[in-house]
Amino acid sequence: MSLQPPSTQPVKMSSNTFVHKLYNMVVDKQYQHLIAWNYTGSAFIVCNIMEFSRDVLPKHFKHNNFSSFVRQLNMYGFHKVNKSPRGHRTLAENQIWEFSHPKFLRGRPDLLDDIKRKAMESETLRRETGDLHAHLAMMQVAQNELIQQIRQLQENFAEVMRDLADTKRKQNLQQHWMKGMWEFMQSQGSTATREFMVYDIECQ
């Protein structure tokens, strides 16, 4: 027995192949016991998913994978209407699945072209690409800051080395001067030498 009164005629294929194939599948009179509109024509019902996957899907979609069929419905914005209480399990041949979309209505094939595939994948890719670009930009900023810090450290190190060299030069000059004074004092006698030694100790 059919799930509904006789439905509308099949529609011609358009650019939105999946949705038009789906509409033709729902109105296919040969399989009204497996897929058909609900009573109000606002959704379609699938019965006995095993038989539906075996007999109906290959005819319209060239595959028999019900999970893939449901994923495609989700990508086009269809929503599953829960026909069983949550947690209730039934055999596959007894399960009833109902799907709805505000633009997928009985007798309104003119609305089919308004059903668009959701841009989830492209939006996710765009967002991830944007995040990657932002991350790379932050890494570039951090790298530039690190380079500046390294340059500053190099300049500080060079300045320390210059100061150290200048200090060493002054020490060498002081030692040279003290050696000259020591030699001079020795040549002037022991008293002057002792006074210079006392002066040298106090200076140190």
How much is the average pLDDT? Answer: 78
Distance between the termini: 117 Å
- List how many beta strands DSSP finds: 4
* Strand neighbour order, sheet with most strands: 1-2-4-3
Look up the CATH topology of the largest domain.
Arc Repressor Mutant, subunit A
What is the level-2 CATH architecture name of the largest domain? Answer: Orthogonal Bundle
Radius of gyration: 45 Å
Number of domains: 2
Q: What is the CATH homology-level superfamily of the largest domain?
A: Winged helix-like DNA-binding domain superfamily/Winged helix DNA-binding domain
The tally of helices reads 6
Which stretches of 5+ consecutive residues score pLDDT under 50? 1-7
User: SSE order in H/E notation?
Assistant: HEEHHHEEHH
Helical content class: 55-70%
Protein name: HSF-type DNA-binding domain-containing protein
GO molecular function: DNA-binding transcription factor activity; sequence-specific DNA binding
Subcellular location: Nucleus
Organism: Rhizophagus irregularis
